[in-house]
Known about the structure:
Layout: H1 5-20, H2 25-35, E1 36-43, E2 48-50, H3 52-64, E3 69-73, E4 78-80, E5 83-92, E6 99-108, E7 111-119
Parallel strand pairs: 1-7
Antiparallel strand pairs: 1-2, 3-5, 4-5, 5-6, 6-7
Amino acid sequence: MSVDQELLTELAHRNLLGVFGERDPQKRAAVIAEIYAEQVTFSDPDEVVVGRDALGEKAQRLLDQAPGFAFSPAGPVRTSGNLTMLAWHLGPEGQPPVASGLDVSIVEDGRIAHLYTLLDPPA
């Protein structure tokens, strides 16, 4: 089965910037409805959440904890089959990042079905 690499790249960027980097709840909800499977699973070092609503709530909590901070890609999207990886930085805009990590997603039927966030150890 051939997987559209452009689609995978777009999904990875929209996940980072259009969901976890989007502070407008209505814009974020619209992207969530477009790019995630209905029963998407999201896992990070703190918890696992299931479903679009829970993922949206998780994104809101993360944004609430980091006012004035922005996510930015830290390199290109890497893909293998239906798996994507995108490294990222988080910090005040225009300043060195305070956190970095990696998002790994598994895409099924053109939507992100599983999303894993790995955090880099503090410098």
